[in-house]
Amino acid sequence: MNFAKSEYFVNRELSWVDFDDRVLEEARDKTNPLLERVRFLGITQSNLDEFFMVRVASLRKMQAVAYATPDVAGLTPTEQLAALSAKIHPLVEKQYSTWTRSLLPQLEKVGISLLTYDRLSKKQLSFCSQYFHQVLYPVLTPLAVDASRPFPFIGNNTLNLALRLLKNDAHGDEKKARRFAMVQVPNVFPRVVTLPGDNQFILLEDVIKPFIGELFTGFKVKEVQTFRVIRDMDFDVAEEDASDLMKEIVHQLAMREHTKVMRLELAAETSKTLRKRLIKALAVHEADVYDIKGPIDLTVLSKLVKAVKNHPELLYKPFKAYTPPVLRQADLFAAIRQRDLFLHHPYDSFDPVIQLIKQAANDRNTLAIKMTLYRVSSDSPIIQYLSAAAQNGKQVTVLVELKARFDEKNNVHWATQLEKKGCHVIYGLVGLKTHCKLLLIVRREGDGIRRYMHMATGNYNDVTARLYTDMGLFTADPKMGVDASNIFNMLSGFSEPEHFAELNIAPLTLRPFLNARFDDEIANAKAGKKALIRMKMNSLSDKKMIEKIYAAAAAGVKVDLIIRGICCLKVGLPGISENITVHSIVGRFLEHSRIYYFYAGGEEKLYLSSADLMNRNLSRRVELLFPILQPDIKAQIVHIYQLMWQDNLKTRVLQADGSYQKVDRRGLTPLDVQASLLKEAVAAQRRTVEPKTAPPTHFVPMQKPWSPLDED
User: Fold this and answer.
1) Where are the beta strands (DSSP E) in 544-600?
2) Which residue ranges does the record assign to the Polyphosphate kinase C-terminal domain (predicted)?
3) Which of 328, 516, 538, 633 has the fewest Cβ atoms surrounding its Cβ within 10 A?
4) Distance between CA 86 and CA 127 in Å, rounded?
5) Which residues in the chain show pLDDT less than 50?
């Protein structure tokens, strides 16, 4: 049977927009705390911004070079751009109707106000006048546009004011007296300005506008409007000579700000004259111009949430992440030596991972630490302990992926700092991003050399570990240890392993390994045996893997998929995908763990991975898939998956028409899986008493919105 027909696939980009719409549903969900709904709305904006910076930018580049090859769904780049425009414009309208008709009025009811200038009290008007004249005025820079002063460069994601001016002493010919100018809203000040009064706020641009004429003495302000541009922020680095990779990354970062405009947001009341001038000057496609009926750049809402005081009831209740007692002991090596240990973040604390690295850095028996870093926090304790390990004479090898999108600058900084401290820093393989999450510690012990490992589905980032659901495994399994050593030898040297005993790595063995597991289930189904595949991932877009899933389902294998974001597979295709069910969970935390389960005739083979089933993960990245061999941990993860599958509050189910529908809860006990797992973690915390010397594991409320593009 031919499973490769374009009508069997969904366009990747359109599927992503559907995901952002599911996030928007959380902003509209009245069961969520009000300020968290506001934050979800801000998340939809940051998602959309990154989508234009990366995905729309890629399509525009294809269009510019007349690339006309269709995608798996049969759409050319030009057709995709047209379809995206038709889908995103209504999404933006839905964003702003959510804000103006729902969230803003509800905030007002509880005494939280984001005011416009015409609604200010006398005291607040006086405050704004003083704030403008004493603080803002010295910083603001008027930029005239005329024959001698060309249109200024507008930076990516900066907020700007465009003005139409008229000279005061104009006589007769008004046309000659017309002027055009710009003022950037300075980003050195908070955009959310706190006013006198409890939880009273105004946006910075609304403080500037009433006084902006003072920057243009001798002219009358005819119009002033806010606008913002999003530019192409993606880049491809030529890697023929990896020795110059860092230098090339730094160069590309400097150049990236001057790329083409992918999106222009304008205040909806902007005049035709001003609108036309901006579109022409910025060379933006009409389809990528968005008329905004509200505050431009809704990511400001996360700052508004942080500014609100004394309303904890409008936020998610903070909790304390759980640290299993076995991981609270002083000697973590002894704990891992006895048995494999599993962590499920953010319900379980990320601190044991940090503590293991800290212990290794100061442990006289530790000989070497090897680690991959894709994204770390801006103040990472892991960097601190790796540096300390090198200073203490350990052999420290760190692979820092410089090409981690939007973290390039941060990673260049950390790579430089690690090298200064004596760590051996490598930048991965030519043409591949190293996305696997692997920590290897080599110790000299009484019975010889022993390897300790931590492998995970998510990044070594102590901040996102509080926001993303991820899974990690501590193990001292000898076979996995040898495999881990071979992986690092491959990354740092010329080693080309032909065989791995337990681990699988992309782009070498991961795809054929998964194909073999699919074939096993297909064979069992054809033999009349029970055949079941359960997988959880962020995105499913790889054409060959989708064809393999179709083949399994057509053979009678039951396929259950939990896919948070992009899904290019269709359900309900007669004779092809009727055995496939797809769920998407969008909730408080970003679902990020990757689980691959195969019934295997009752043996139940279970794997965790850093990889989604996307072509980039399977073919252009170094990814890791590792088995769960210990029965109790396997049972725990199976339980977690089953709980996720039973979620009926935050789950949307993919329909045959491509839409996602909430679960019909009639007759069902309401179940929010994330809330349930939080409850389990809190209960476990209460059952055990941490020693006073235990490291802090307090859950920190969301400091920044989670972002699905940011994590990969």
Assistant:
1) 558-563, 580-585, 590-591, 595-598
2) 332-496, 503-674
3) 516
4) 43
5) 240, 242, 690-705, 709-711
pLDDT value of residue 82 = 97
- Ligand-binding annotation for 231, yes or no, is no
Active site residues: 435
Q: Is 686 annotated as a binding residue?
A: no
Spatial strand order of the sheet with 200-203 comes to: 113-115, 200-203, 192-194
pLDDT digits (tens, 9 = 90+) for 297-339: 999 999 999 999 999 999 999 988 999 999 998 899 999 999 9
What predicted TM-score, i.e. pTM, was given to this entire model? 0.92
Contact 228, 52 (CB under 8 A): no
Distance in angstroms (rounded) separating the CA atoms of residues 691 and 351: 15
* Residue 559 backbone phi and psi in degrees, to 5: -120, 115
285 marked ligand binding residue: no
Closest C-alpha to 328, from 306, 307, 343: 343
- Domain residue ranges of the chain, discontinuous segments joined by +: 6-314, 325-501, 506-671
Cα 663 from Cα 584, distance rounded (Å) = 11
- The DSSP element (H or E) to which 38 belongs, if any, is helix 34-51
Tally of helices (H runs) and strands (E runs) in the chain: 21, 27
Q: Where are the alpha helices (DSSP H) in 343-444?
A: 351-362, 381-391, 408-420
**Dihedral Cα 461, 466, 468, 471, nearest 10 deg:** 80
433-487 pLDDT, tens per residue? 889 999 999 999 999 999 999 999 999 999 999 999 999 999 999 999 999 999 9
d(CA 41, CA 100): 12
Annotated ligand binding at 364? The verdict is no
- Cα separation, 383 vs 391, whole angstroms: 12
SS3 374: coil
State the Cα–Cα distance between residues 360 and 390, nearest whole angstrom: 11
Fold of 6-314: polyphosphate kinase like (3.30.1840)
List % helix, strand, coil for the chain (3-state, nearest 5). Answer: 40, 20, 35
Question: Is 337 marked as a binding-site residue?
Answer: no
- The mean pLDDT value of the chain amounts to 91
Single-letter residue type at 359: Q
State the architecture of 325-501 in CATH terms. 2-Layer Sandwich (3.30)
Residues 63-117 pLDDT 10s: 999 999 999 999 999 999 999 999 999 999 999 999 999 999 999 999 999 999 9
> Which sign does the torsion angle of CA 242, 244, 249, 255 carry?
negative
Classify domain 506-671 by CATH architecture: 2-Layer Sandwich (3.30)
Structure tokens belonging to residue 641:
């998956």
pLDDT value, residue 692: 47
Asked whether this chain's domains 6-314 and 506-671 adopt the same fold, the reply is no
